[in-house]
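Q: Structure for this?
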Amino acid sequence: MANARDVAKAAGVSVSTVSRALVAPDQVSDATRRRVVEAAERLGYRPNPVARGLRLGRTHAVGLIVPDLENPYFASVTKGVQARARAEGYAVFVADTDEDASVEAELVAGLAARVDGLILASPRSDDATLLAAVEGSVAVLANRELDGLPSIALDDADGAAQVLGHLRALGHRRVAVAQGPSSSWSGNRRLAGLRAAAEQFGDVELVHLGSFRPYFSGGHVAADHAAASGATAVVAFNDLMALGILDRLRSRGVRVPQDLSVVGYDDVAVATLVSPALTTVHSPLSGLGRRAVDLLVGRLRGATGTSTTTHLPVELVIRGSTGVPAPVTTG
Amino acid sequence: MANARDVAKAAGVSVSTVSRALVAPDQVSDATRRRVVEAAERLGYRPNPVARGLRLGRTHAVGLIVPDLENPYFASVTKGVQARARAEGYAVFVADTDEDASVEAELVAGLAARVDGLILASPRSDDATLLAAVEGSVAVLANRELDGLPSIALDDADGAAQVLGHLRALGHRRVAVAQGPSSSWSGNRRLAGLRAAAEQFGDVELVHLGSFRPYFSGGHVAADHAAASGATAVVAFNDLMALGILDRLRSRGVRVPQDLSVVGYDDVAVATLVSPALTTVHSPLSGLGRRAVDLLVGRLRGATGTSTTTHLPVELVIRGSTGVPAPVTTG
DNA sequence: ACGAAGCGTGCAATCGTTTGCAGACTAGCG
DNA sequence: CGCTAGTCTGCAAACGATTGCACGCTTCGT
């Protein structure tokens, strides 16, 4: 409400002195500074961030663009971004694309002039579109790798390898894979990780069930494919899909894990709320958000390292949905 | 990147004309307007929202303050707010208080000058603090009622009444209630609704188990109390708590709904992901967010109706977790 | 005692836009 | 042909802060 002029008047100084007393205290005399600070406090003065943003060209705000706020994956990322950004003195604009790649560029353009930098979480646009959209802005990616933009990602391939190692150790030799959208960058990384691990083991066969929607409903569909595949375990693209698989299997009377082991990915909170609890790959999602802010803020402060990707480690957590496969009973 | 001066130069006109050509097209001649629009398009000009915000005193941004973004309840509200705000041309600042009432006022103060209006979702602060914090800003409340501020809420009392009516119709006569934090405004409204309905029926007894944390973990604790209460049904403060109750009952071998019926509240997405699926009160959460934006934008456009509360209807959805109580077997 | 150095303060420009005001030019009417 | 009305455009102020520059005063050294 009160602006610098009000404070200046109250303290009997000029507006410039008010500004300096607050941002460069050593440039004003002790007596003056005290008068100004006292007046500012008494009037509840806060420098207007919009005016400051215009003058300085820095708004102290960042933008976050996510595909779906209701998806617990992005809810966690958003939480992490918000927390760290606030700690660093930045306000956060958040925009939800509703999984529609075509609105991403528009959102970037709309936010660009309002923020100092942008965080794009799992953007759905293709590489060229994305690069063109962020042209002229400072941007970092979360959960996506792209030449020319710095990014934070999870070590998806390693997580997938851990999953396959776990299943193999339990005795599984035929493992079904329920993929998500083929456009999903992290999905492809996970698949590559599974393949690499399978190849390395040599004695585990992967059965590709196809692509399914990365939600509960997609899991319902995938479950029947998995049951028909002859595999003793199924690896889902993410936890939501795995939960759908569990649900469908239960209603069909397929026992988990005796008849079929099920593995998810992400370790969203819901994974522990079902029975059997879901074996999954714990992913530090809010950490991903926090690190994205760190990376962005580093850029804004002038760090100009190479635009590389940092991979955060993930960890398999074993719960009730995986177990030793039942011995094959011959008909 | 390009500003009005660049466009002016390119079109051979003054900056004022550029502005007018875009915001008040009927004030410039056809020929000039075409030249300006063409130049603006060619240069990819977008009026700088920060500068415009400074000049007009309206930033075309709104702020949303929620207790916890990871809570699916608020994730849905946030999604609704974001969607409607964007449709109305507003960008959204989002801030998460981590359930800490004491940071609410600070967040409001920090955002106040950046936004045209604020939406406070389920604020935890007490009435006086809240009113003082929003002094001087345009603010609306979601899921909280407070004299002097307009708000959108859900018809909690009616939802609770529907719950009790359902249980009574099934034959339940002794119903346990697991409350959430006593500071929860909506929790108290729900409790009041249950009490009113019980009183009206006359033949249903409510057993108060106490207050529990409104999460999965709180449900674990509440479950044992419920089992010991002699009630044939338990009503939880929200879905997360109800899921915790289900989980704990299952591990204790208590059958749902034969031995004990369980009812949640909110109908978050997870409620259908468990078995038995949760009977709960479907609450239009993203609708709540959208309506909050409508209310706020109405205020910003000058509507000055009385600061009243609108209640959105809720609807009981019956799933597998409630049923007819088993006949009492005498020892 | 005079000059230089240095500290503290204010003036004014600036960021990019919008908008009141006034000037210039056209057109229309008598 | 002259006056008026009206249309279009530009100038300049304004929003609220930050900051380069210059000025005035004190202080110190010689």
